[in-house]
Amino acid sequence: MVLILDNSSPADIVIVMPKPDATVLAREEFSYSNLYSYDHDGNTDGATSTSVVSDPLLQGSSCVESGIANDVSSATLSTAPSSFESAFKALAKQNSFNDLAAACAKQNVTCTSAANQNSIGGYKAIEASSNNSISDKITRDPRNGAFTFQVHAEYDLLLQIQKDLDAKRPLKSKSLSSSLSSLALTDIESTKIILKSVDSYCYGKQWMYHIGSEKGQAISRFLRSGVESWLKRKDRNKKFICLDCGTYCGYSALVLASTLRVIANELQNSINEEETEETFEFHIYTTEVSSKLINVAQSVFRMAKMEQYITPILMQADGKESLSAAMKQNGVMCIDFLLFDHAKNLYLSDLNDLEAGGLLKAGSRVSADNVVFNKLDAYRYHMEQLQAKGIVETRLDEMNLEYSNNLKDGIEQTIYLKDP
Q1: Which terminal CB of the chain, N or C, has fewer other CB atoms within 10 Å?
Q2: What is the pLDDT of residue 43?
Q3: Contacts 24+ apart (CB under 8 A), 14-23
Q4: How confident is the model at residue 98 (pLDDT cuts 50, 70, 90)?
């Protein structure tokens, strides 16, 4: 079953606190990782527990050193927590770390990203930013650090976004109603404010599972490069189609939408100045397994005034629904840009499904988040095999895990040179 939610709604946003989803009722706290951790039997183990918690607390970090391991008590290691939440809570309780990276600082361990000089399609990777700049941004309570989750944090975030939007509107419009004053900001301006608001919330109040500004910029650059190549093709479709797997609160979809809207404006200005006759149309589809989170994301899209460019799709949570079939039901026969940030155990199977369904073609680009932190070796190996056959060019952009100090992560950025 695929449910397409209607984007038409009044301009005013009414935030209603819903009852928790059935899958959350058994947990003391809401965990976004649960919603994205369904295995093929429908179980809800920790999203990355199979790949990381086998060596609890420390696997997946760029700071795995014997000194750090010794600093964490043997009792914690022997308990082998079954989820990221319990693992990081145990670490925070014993050491009062804001993030796991604080362990590195305590042991004077230097965590660096290896220089990677490869480039594809005129796009060069950006290495992880300095640790000091991120550390300065993090002001949240240590108990709200990486992989901690709070009940209804998404709705608290919506209120913060609305507050920040109201503060940024021109003074002459503040006396008007919310629906009228929102007209004072363009969609691009509103989106920029919203993304910054989310980042501030996650650095200052509660860690959340958005891609964050550093990864967002890397994906935006890769997307822009893809659009530039797409515009040069004679056989391109009428619309540039993006698929964002893993809606959550809509942050990643807004990164895609704002990037594409800027490009569209640039082309329109060129047309007005008679420098080009190129026109640019696009649409973004974003998939989610939680109706609660889709409601949150739709509110964010409306506040950003980007809802006309984004179609949310509610997928079955058991992972048995075909992603290619869902896209074809919406008339999509080719995906120009694909972003994976959903259930980590579904990356490879969903990629294979889209390849087999003919939705990924020569020129298609794929960004896969969290391939380092979640140790998605099978996915990366698949891409390396395709590269060896001359089907794709692929590279790893190394950077930090979102809203953390030195938790090492990366995005696999891939260009299809041929139809798979």
Answers
A1: N
A2: 41
A3: 15/155, 15/158, 15/159, 15/299, 17/152, 17/155, 18/292, 18/295, 20/151, 20/292, 21/290, 21/291, 21/292, 23/317
A4: very low
Structure tokens at 405: 């100090």
Q: Which amino acid is at 93?
A: K
The secondary structure of 119-170 as a DSSP string is: EETTEE--PPPPHHHHHHH--S-GGG-TT---TTHHHHHHHHHHHHHHHHS-
Separation CA 181–CA 179 (nearest Å):
6
Beta bridge partners of 282: 240
The phi, psi pair for 36, rounded to 5°, reads: -115, 25
Query: CA geometry: angle at 200 spanning 251 and 264, to 5°?
Result: 40
* Helix 251-272 with 187-204: angle, nearest 10 deg: 150
Rounded (10°) angle between helices 377-388 and 347-356: 40
Q: What percent of the chain has pLDDT over 70?
A: 63
Computed over its alpha carbons, how large is the radius of gyration of the chain? 21
**Span 73-101, average pLDDT:** 39
> Between 32 and 287, whose confidence is greater?
287
User: How far apart are the C-alpha atoms of 329 and 100, rounded to whole Å?
Assistant: 43
- Provide the pLDDT for residue 151: 86
Question: Per-residue pLDDT tens for 236-259?
Answer: 999 999 999 999 999 999 999 999
Name the helix (H) or strand (E) containing 301: helix 291-304
In the prediction, which pLDDT does 319 show?
66
